[in-house]
Amino acid sequence: MEILVPINSQESARETVKHAVREFPGASITALHVLQLNGTYGIGRMYVHEPVMVTEQKHVEELFETATETADAHGGSITTMTAIGCPVREIVAHIESSDTDHVVIGRCGRSGLLRLLYQNVTHGVVYRSPVPVTVVK
To answer: What is the pLDDT of residues 4-29, one digit of tens each?
Structure first.
């Protein structure tokens, strides 16, 4: 069985990986982080990717370290991967292009106005995923 665990924060990495390892023992688990680079990182038509990428790379390394340590602590193992683009599109594209059987994703941490203003990745994955999705609170 192939399990996909999209992660974007330390808390998300801990909780979702722990849930996936416990609920799907022996499964092949992949932790996926999607980098969302857009025009907000640019100055006019010139984009400043290098400083952003250095910061993001450090964040991703910390996320994957947390995910790997969590899996190890609960008797499992994971592989990690990064994609660049719209999180919902990239997660669903990964599901469709791989042998993913199930997705374990954290719930949206926003509430109120922030939830209305920003895209809810969890919501998008739940409604677009061709495989079952478990949302971890």
So the answer is: 999 988 888 999 999 999 999 999 99
